[in-house]
Design brief:
homodimer, about 325 residues, 12 helices
Amino acid sequence: MTTDPPSPHVVLLAGGVGGARLADGLARALPPDHLTVVVNTGDDFRHLGLTICPDLDTVTYMLAGVNNDETGWGRVGESWRALDEAARLGGPDWFRLGDLDLATHLARSHWLAEGETLTAVTRRLWAGFGAGFGAGPVVLPMSDAPAPTLIETDTGDVLPFQIWFVRERWQPAVRRVVLPEDARATAAVIRALEAADVVIIAPSNPFVSIDPILNAYPIRALIEDVPQAVVAVSPIIAGQALKGPAAKMMAELGLAASAAAVAGYYGHLIDGFVYDQQDAGMTAEDGLALLCTDTIMRGATGRERLAREVLAFAGEMLD
Amino acid sequence: MTTDPPSPHVVLLAGGVGGARLADGLARALPPDHLTVVVNTGDDFRHLGLTICPDLDTVTYMLAGVNNDETGWGRVGESWRALDEAARLGGPDWFRLGDLDLATHLARSHWLAEGETLTAVTRRLWAGFGAGFGAGPVVLPMSDAPAPTLIETDTGDVLPFQIWFVRERWQPAVRRVVLPEDARATAAVIRALEAADVVIIAPSNPFVSIDPILNAYPIRALIEDVPQAVVAVSPIIAGQALKGPAAKMMAELGLAASAAAVAGYYGHLIDGFVYDQQDAGMTAEDGLALLCTDTIMRGATGRERLAREVLAFAGEMLD
């Protein structure tokens, strides 16, 4: 008689859309209390008086099933009365905040002003969307204190991330990504990593989604030093990012825009690398396990399929 | 041949609904650049991350013709998607912020965060509503720095104004209104008062709408010492306030709930007092000019009628 192996405890490091999609797939493939999603907060910012956490919201909306799948950000069934009127009054509207999305930022800003941590606020929001700890995956901000990512462009300007990413549509060429020296992971993140059997790095931007998480002390050290299986999924397919500036940034930072270059960038941090079938034949350093598959997550079925393949791949490393 | 007398320069001290209605009447009766409305900011507060200025907005919405005349606050044609969703997520919804109204608070909070003064922000909003300095009355906050009014209740609790007024529906009995010792009028308010021929005190709550304005140094001294005609309009009609807690507060503060008591409360600050025909026969201290008329402002016609009567009454004092 054979039995299924016990499900591993998984920590997913996630940025925005790619992270949210793999989080949803993993949530479908794992028991509810076996998945912790650690989310980049480096692109959080204050805007229109509110504290906005784009990656946390993209992940939460996806897991709660209220996300807009067409845009990849924001909520489905959204309306724009408040922001359009603010623009008519002369206010800025380059960051598109819908009426339903605003509710998240209003509630978050309220609780933060009352002294709650971002971790507690994220749990409250998650509960408000009908789930909660124990009833679904745990979604954690990498840090409770702001840890803003800055973009130094090739003209020497240093821009807050969202100014570069959204207002300037990530067009200014990047010379350097500037991460804060004092970023600290939360106790909840540290506990989750210490208890993890598998760490998965989502197909998110390595420089502005994953590096900010690794930069929050002591996340990189915990992942380097402990015996989990660490698997990254390539955000680059056939030299392009499915969405966002990853490929453009690689070229600007002097790297090849390829899956292999992503694997090389993560280096000894990872034990396994998942790349797309369009890049079949990719080679990597000795000792790095490779999985070549269809990494494009089409719908819930596609998200769960990739998650199960990644989990099986990581599971082999645990044996 | 006779000529009309030149229009006086008028400063109106205004709280919320009553102040907004008389402001609108005066705007209809005076040349555009002859009216300055100095608005109470004592009930401003931060809520859901935003800076909210209820009296400024009530006055601005009325003058811009976008106010909700049924409720007396907020905007006509309002919707509630953001706030209802925030409430569903567990956030507070006792202060009703509609989607259009939110636009004002979002734009204001944005500009304040950029370092602009509340005076400049109010001008920007006013311009956004299609008017502007020189093209309509000037609307000024009494102060640029926060000058919050607190309510000490008969149980000894000291509540922020909006907690008492809106969340607790002004039910806790008032022992004392606590005004800040360091409230300062803006330079624009001081200039307007120095240039005024007539100062009108709107039919607003004397304790929580007008006193906070008079408390902002040096407004009271400017009104006491300079030779304008100062006229107050009674907010009390037949022992009742048309709206709000004025009559209830008068009883709790040991005053009679009557127009005469309001006149007595303003004392030597005022030269004239306008009270309602329902209180016909009211007597006052020697030297106080009295005007008995219909003080209920029904629609735009009623607002302009009362404004013209008050202006004529004040005009007699200027001769």
